[in-house]
Q: What sequence folds into this?
């Protein structure tokens, strides 16, 4: 039976849905089906923490829906991994992953130290928290910024490639990164050229999360290894959610 | 496309080769082929660090030979992950993984904290070093020992299951582990029953690296993501190995040339 993965762009605007779907389609396993969706309202990028806070409720709603529709996995498509913990908390029969988590697990397996190439310096403090949270503080060579916002990466691709190359080369040569992670999903399409240029693995944030999702599905289906539902990911009681009328208050019913 | 995985039991006995091969067959992807091998000499288990030191050369040469034979991945089948760093250093075309690394990456994704159930307390200090090295110190709820040696696990299965259950239950209830890792490859065959009993994921130390190896092969073949050859895993120069006559000195002619 096919494995169904929902890739969520957790912001408003469908402009990336088709390009990302096409990018994933080329690399998915033959027995995987993928859908890419974005949110129907909200900010158009998540460069500010306030924007991320706004999108959480819709992202989580989308994931809960996906679980009900029988998806096997959901990917939260932003390198801040927004709502990852909460998504695992509210689901049982679906596995969830996100780009930063997946990319760092891969990177620390492929080399001792990695660097993360971000768009703007603004992003670094929060992403650094995630590095620490996932346990990889000692494995971080550096963050590098290329001074481009989310919507700039595909505006002038030659310029983006040039800046990514310069930043990644510095990360490898000066900071001794053995692996480079592209720290924004919208940096898709650049990893292969960069990797050829640098001679070290360059981890694409979309492909990493997507392949990790396929891997987690395999573990869950074969061995029953899904997210643990004791302690941290223990779900809120449905009775309480009903009694408080949360669905109506937050417009969760469509 | 078929992927070939070489599973190495890094001990001088083939006692576990057949049972582990049979167990791996139950968990592998249909396109994966697995060969299980062990070493031709050496200690019969690795419960002492001295034994591990003895087997390193043979294990590394078996990995290198695996690369020469066209395998896509090698798994070093002991939860101490012996020689993992060195194996990655000396190879280019195959990916290498091992049980502790693979199990911890999986466990840290499935829950916040995990406990590792080992055979004997003796094992804990070195395994703890690996937890720290891999970055998961803050994710470790506890180590639990069931006081059984490597060869005891499969001797009295009912007794082993009983002890594993008691230890894992304690880990979940008292140490707040959300995921359990079985910290010895010879503990194979117990995870499913334990998992049903406990209601948390119980990671088997054979299936975890098998699946991680398949995953690493996939991302290598598709994206060219394999161990970085800069810095830490930079390979030793062949000319030096030849000039120093290492193959002859260690009895591994043909591995490097």
A:
């Amino acid at each position: 039976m096919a494995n169904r993965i929902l890739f969520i762009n957790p912001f408003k605007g469908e402009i990336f849905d088709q390009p990302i779907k096409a990018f994933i389609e080329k690399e998915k396993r033959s027995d995987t089906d993928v859908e890419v969706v974005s949110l129907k309202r909200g900010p158009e990028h998540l460069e500010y923490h306030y924007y991320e806070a706004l999108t959480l409720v819709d992202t989580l709603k989308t994931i809960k829906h996906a679980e009900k529709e029988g998806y096997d996995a959901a990917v939260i498509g932003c390198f801040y991994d927004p709502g990852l913990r909460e998504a695992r908390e509210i689901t049982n029969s679906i596995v969830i992953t996100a780009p930063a988590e997946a990319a760092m697990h891969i990177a620390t397996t492929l080399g001792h130290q990695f660097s993360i190439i971000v768009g703007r310096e603004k992003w670094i403090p929060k992403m650094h928290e995630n590095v620490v949270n996932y346990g990889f503080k000692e494995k971080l060579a550096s963050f590098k910024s290329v001074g481009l916002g989310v919507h700039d990466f595909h505006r002038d691709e030659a310029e983006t490639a040039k800046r990514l190359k310069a930043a990644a080369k510095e990360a490898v040569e000066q900071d001794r990164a053995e692996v480079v992670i592209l720290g924004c999903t919208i940096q898709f399409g650049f990893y292969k050229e960069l990797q050829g240029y640098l001679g070290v693995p360059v981890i694409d944030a979309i492909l990493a999360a997507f392949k990790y999702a396929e891997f987690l599905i395999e573990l869950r289906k074969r061995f029953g290894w899904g997210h643990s539902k004791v302690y941290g990911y223990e779900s809120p009681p449905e009775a309480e959610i009903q009694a408080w009328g949360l669905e109506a208050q937050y417009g969760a019913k469509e | 496309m078929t992927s070939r995985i070489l599973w190495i039991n890094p001990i001088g006995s083939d006692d576990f080769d057949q049972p582990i091969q049979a167990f791996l067959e139950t968990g592998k992807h249909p396109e994966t082929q697995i060969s299980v091998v062990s070493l031709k000499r050496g200690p019969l288990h690795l419960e002492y660090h001295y034994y591990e030191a003895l087997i390193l050369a043979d294990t590394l040469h078996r990995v290198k030979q695996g690369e020469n034979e066209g395998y896509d991945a090698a798994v070093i089948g002991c939860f101490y992950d012996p020689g993992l760093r060195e194996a990655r250093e000396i190879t280019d075309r195959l990916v290498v993984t091992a049980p502790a690394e693979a199990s911890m990456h999986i466990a840290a994704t499935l829950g916040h904290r995990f406990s590792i159930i080992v055979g004997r307390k003796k094992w804990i200090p070195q395994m703890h070093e690996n937890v720290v090295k891999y970055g998961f110190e803050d994710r470790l709820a506890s180590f639990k020992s069931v006081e059984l040696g490597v060869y005891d696990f499969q001797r009295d299965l009912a007794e082993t299951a009983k002890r594993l259950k008691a230890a894992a239950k304690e880990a979940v209830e008292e140490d707040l582990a959300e995921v359990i890792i079985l910290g010895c490859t010879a503990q194979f065959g117990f995870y499913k029953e334990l998992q049903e009993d406990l209601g948390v994921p119980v990671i088997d130390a054979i299936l975890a690296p098998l699946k991680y190896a398949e995953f690493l092969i996939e991302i290598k073949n598709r994206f060219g993501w394999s161990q970085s050859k800069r810095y830490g895993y930079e390979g030793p120069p062949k000319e030096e190995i030849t000039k120093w006559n290492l193959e002859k000195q260690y009895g591994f002619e043909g591995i490097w040339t």
Notes: Chain B has two domains: 3-98+207-249, 100-203. Chain B touches chain A through 50 residues (CB under 8 Å).
